[in-house]
Specification:
By secondary structure, the protein is an alpha+beta fold. Helix content is 30%, strand content 24%. It has nine helices and 17 strands. Bound molecules: 2,5-anhydro-1,6-di-O-phosphono-D-mannitol (AHM) and magnesium ion (MG).
Length: 334
C-alpha cells in the first residue's frame, strides 16, 4: 500500500513554496480543516440529535430563513478563527455585519476569512449534500489594529487561498493557494483528510448543465435561448442533448462539474435582479478554484474575480464551470 498523505502533511510541505512564509496560513488552513471535521460530524448525526434540524426561527440579513445547522456551523468556524490568532476578522453569509476580533492576539492576525458556513440550506433537512465555502485574504489594515470593511471588500483576484468542504457521501476538502487545486477525502476511521484528488483539472468541456429551470421564464431571454436551443437540443456529433443535473447545493453541483465537466448557472431574474449567489462568500472562492483548475467563472459578461465589491452581501449572476461551456453560454448573452 502506498503512503497516505494527510492534509496536514501536504500543507506543511507546500509551505516551502512560499518564500518568507511564517506558517500562519498553514495554521489557518489546518484550523479550517479541524472546524470542518466538527461540522461534518454534526451534519452526519443531525437527524439523531435534538435541536440540529429545522429552522432556527430567525432570518439572516438577506431575509432568508436560517436553519439550526447554519448557525451551529457559523459558530463553529467563528470560534475556531477567534481562537487561532491568524485571523483579525471575518465576514459570513449568516451575519449582518463583518466581525473585527478585538483580542490583542487576534488583532495581530494577518488574514481575514469570508465564508458561507453551510451552503445549500434547503437541503439540510433532507439528507442531501451541503457544503462550506471559504475565501482567505491578506488584510489591508495595519497589523495590531481592528479589521476594517476595506479588509473585507477586496476583489476575488486578491484571494490568497480559497476552498470548500463538501459534506456528501464522503466529506471532502478541496482548496487552492493559487498553485493548482487539490482534493482531500476525510477518512472517518482515522479522522484525517487524506490526499485523494491531486492537481485537479476541470475538463475543458462537458455534457451536463445545472440551473434551476423553474426560473427559465423570469431570466433574460439569452439564457432561455441557451438552455432550450442549445443544452436541450442534440448537437452535431452527439447522440443526445446535455443532461440536466441540479442539486440545489452549489458546492455539490460545482464539485461534480469540476470532476466530470459541466456548467452551473444562476442568472439574474426578475425576482433576484442581481442574481442570488453572494460574490464574496460563494462566487469568488469557487471562481478561484475553477480558474486554478482550468475552468472559468463569470457573471455572464465579466470575470467574477475582477469585480470590485461594493458591499458585503453583494449578489451577482453566476456562470461557472468548464471553460468552453461557460464561453458558449456567454455567447448567447451578447
Ligand atoms: P444558501 O447559501 O442560502 O444555501 O443559498 C445558496 C444556494 C446554492 O447552494 C444553490 O445552488 C442555490 O442557492 C439554490 O437556489 P434555488 O433554490 O433558488 O435554486
Ligand atoms: Mg450559500
Amino acid at each position: 500500500m502506498s503512503k497516505v498523505t494527510t492534509l496536514h502533511e501536504f500543507i506543511m510541505d507546500r509551505q516551502a513554496d512560499f518564500p518568507f512564509a511564517s506558517g500562519e496560513l498553514s495554521r489557518l488552513l489546518n484550523d479550517i480543516a479541524v472546524a470542518s471535521k466538527v461540522v461534518s460530524k454534526d451534519v452526519r448525526r443531525a437527524g439523531l440529535l435534538e435541536n440540529f434540524l429545522g429552522a432556527q426561527g430567525s432570518t439572516n440579513i438577506q431575509g432568508e430563513e436560517q436553519q439550526k445547522l447554519d448557525v451551529i456551523a457559523d459558530n463553529q468556524f467563528i470560534n475556531m478563527f477567534k481562537a487561532g490568532g491568524e485571523v483579525c476578522g471575518i465576514a459570513s453569509e449568516e451575519n449582518d455585519d463583518f466581525m473585527a476580533f478585538d483580542s490583542e492576539f487576534s488583532k495581530n492576525g494577518k488574514y481575514v476569512v469570508l465564508f458561507d458556513p453551510l451552503d445549500g440550506s434547503s437541503n439540510i433537512d433532507v439528507n442531501v449534500s451541503i457544503g462550506t465555502i471559504f475565501s482567505i485574504y491578506r488584510r489591508k489594515s495595519d497589523i495590531g489594529s481592528l479589521a476594517t470593511m476595506e479588509d473585507m471588500l477586496q476583489m476575488g483576484q486578491e484571494q490568497i487561498a480559497a476552498g470548500y468542504v463538501l459534506y456528501g457521501s464522503s466529506t471532502m476538502l478541496v482548496y487552492t493557494t493559487g498553485r493548482g487545486v487539490n482534493g482531500f477525502t476525510l477518512d472517518p476511521s482515522i479522522g484525517e483528510f487524506c490526499l485523494s484528488h491531486p492537481d485537479m483539472k476541470m475538463p475543458e468541456t462537458g455534457r451536463m448543465y445545472a440551473m434551476n429551470e423553474g426560473n427559465i421564464n423570469i431570466c433574460e431571454e439569452g439564457i432561455k435561448e441557451y438552455i432550450e436551443t442549445y443544452c436541450q437540443q442534440t448537437q452535431p456529433g452527439h447522440a443526445r442533448p446535455y443532461s440536466g443535473r441540479y442539486i440545489g447545493s452549489l458546492v455539490a453541483d460545482f464539485h461534480r462539474n469540476l470532476i466530470k465537466g459541466g456548467i452551473y448557472i444562476y442568472p439574474d431574474t426578475s425576482v433576484d435582479p442581481e442574481g442570488k449567489l453572494r460574490l464574496l462568500y460563494e462566487c469568488n472562492p469557487l471562481a478561484f478554484i475553477a480558474e486554478q483548475a482550468g475552468g472559468l467563472a463569470t457573471d455572464g459578461r465579466n470575470r467574477i474575480m475582477s469585480i470590485s465589491p461594493g458591499r458585503l452581501h453583494q449578489r451577482v449572476p453566476f456562470f461557472i464551470g468548464s471553460k468552453k461551456m461557460v464561453e458558449q453560454a456567454m455567447s448567447f448573452l451578447k
